[in-house]
Write a structure and sequence with these properties.
The structure holds two protein chains of two kinds.
Chain A (H helix, E strand, L loop, with lengths): L5 H133 L5 H19 L1
Chain B lengths: L1 H28 L4 E4 L2 E4 L4 E3 L6 E3 L4 H20 L9 H47 L12 H23 L1 H7 L7 H47 L5 H38 L4
Classes of the chains: A mainly alpha, B mainly alpha.
Chain lengths: 163, 283
């Protein structure tokens, strides 16, 4: 049982090497190349996924930064708008006030003038009425021109302390 | 009184039968020139030649074990050819199983012992070794088939392949002189080399010898145990033993499936280990 048979050994070698040769062609080459290709592809896919993730993260950070910037911009714009509105309001108010003052001033001037005119008219009327009344009252004929001067002087003297 | 007589008769019969059963087991395990298929004895061709120059007779008969090896090889070629005929990126089913075993050989046996480059280069050799031994081992468990790996000549031939691969790859890697210099560890006191060098040279041959003996003994032992257990029924001539015998034989058979895988793994593992040791000696 423990005897080595040279023929058997030779057949074993022949069978083994034939099998090795055929399997190399039929099995190991397609199998191992498929496995290697798959391993390469998996490594590539992993790398691609990693790259994509990194890119996405970069993009996200970029977007966030942009968003923050935009918000800041909006805040600034709002602030500026408010300031501008404030300023405009002030301006408009000031203008309005000025206009109003002007109007008041003019109105006051008008009033003064009107009063002046009215006073003048009343003064004339009063002078006439006084002349008529006095001429009737004292029945004296005076030179009308002299008379008027006399009354005007009197009125002037009356006006003086009032002013 | 009756029982004693009966027992004595049984014992006598057992002794007588035991001897013939022993012969039967030996005959069954040994290589033969015929294949017993359900009682039909197929005679295999006997080829006897004489080596031309040396003038030595050589028996190149196609024996039962040669036939079994051929069946194993044929099965493997067909299985791999049918599985990997169409190129695919991912193989499923049976092809996927073959692939994962091959990857096991590559990633767990070849690369750890031989490194990335040499491991990948030697994967076809080691995977062929693994599948061939595994198929031959498992074939022995199928009724009507015989165990080629239970033949010392077969295991010795496979171990010599490993032996030559070890020497060739060792010399390829380190150069012829470098390889032989690396056999013995460096930096020992000179007198020690008188002992170390013969031991290392002896070690070169004991490694494949152990490889051949381990596989042969394991495969033969399992079959012997199974046949002996079944032979017990006939030897004792008692049908009552049958459940025990068959149960035990079934258990050993299942164990043998495990052993078939383990031995194929160990043979391949040690082959790659020896080649790796020759290629990358410890400094």
């Amino acid at each position: 049982m423990l005897k080595l048979e040279p023929g058997m050994i030779i057949w074993t070698w022949v069978t083994f090497f034939f099998l090795l040769y055929v399997l190399k062609k039929v099995a190991w080459k397609p199998l191992l190349s498929a496995v290697e290709e798959r391993e390469k592809r998996i490594a590539e896919s992993l790398k691609r996924a990693e790259d994509a993730r990194e890119e996405a993260e970069k993009y996200l950070a970029e977007q966030q930064e942009k968003l923050a910037k935009a918000q800041e911009e909006v805040q600034k714009m709002l602030r500026e708008g408010k300031e501008l509105a404030e300023k405009m309001k002030e301006e408009v108010l000031a203008q309005a006030r000025e206009e109003a003052n002007k109007l008041i001033e003019r109105a006051r001037a008008d009033i003064t003038r009107e009063r002046q005119q009215a006073l003048m008219a009343i003064k004339g009327e009063i002078a006439d009425m006084v002349i008529k009344a006095t001429s009737k009252l004292i029945q004296t004929t005076l030179d009308e021109k002299k008379h008027r001067e006399l009354i005007d002087q009197y009125i002037q003297s009356l006006e003086q302390p009032r002013n | 009184m009756y029982w004693v007589e009966e027992a004595a008769k049984h014992a006598e019969k057992a002794e007588e039968q035991g001897e013939s059963i022993g012969h039967y087991i030996m005959h069954h395990i040994q290589d033969s020139h015929e294949w017993n298929l359900f009682g039909y004895h197929i005679h295999l061709p006997e080829i006897k030649v004489t080596v031309p120059v040396l003038n030595v007779p050589l028996d190149l008969s196609i024996t039962l074990h040669t036939l079994m090896m051929w069946f194993a090889a044929l099965f493997l070629i067909l299985a791999f050819w049918l599985s990997f005929r169409k190129r695919k990126l991912v193989y499923g089913g049976f092809a996927g199983m073959l692939e994962s075993i091959t990857l096991f050989v590559r990633d767990e046996i070849a690369i750890p012992n031989l490194g990335e480059r040499a491991g990948k280069q030697l994967t076809p050799f080691l995977a062929t070794m693994f599948f061939f031994i595994l198929t031959a081992n498992l074939m022995g468990l199928i009724p009507l088939f015989a165990t080629a790996t239970g033949n010392i000549s077969v295991t010795a031939a496979l171990a010599t392949v490993t032996f030559f691969a070890t020497q060739i790859y060792g010399m390829k890697q380190n150069g012829i002189i470098g390889y032989w210099k690396n056999l013995a560890p460096h930096g020992l006191p000179a007198p020690l080399y008188l002992i170390i060098v013969p031991i290392e040279i002896l070690g070169l041959f004991t490694k494949p010898f152990a490889l051949a003996m381990r596989l042969f003994a394991n495969m033969m032992a399992g079959h012997t145990v199974i046949l002996a257990l079944l032979g017990l029924i006939i030897a004792l001539g008692m049908l009552a033993v049958a459940p025990f015998s068959v149960g035990m034989a079934l258990f050993i058979s299942l164990l043998e499936i495990l052993v078939a895988f383990i031995q194929a793994y160990i043979f391949t593992m040690l082959s790659s280990l020896f080649i790796g040791m020759a290629m990358f000696p410890e400094h």
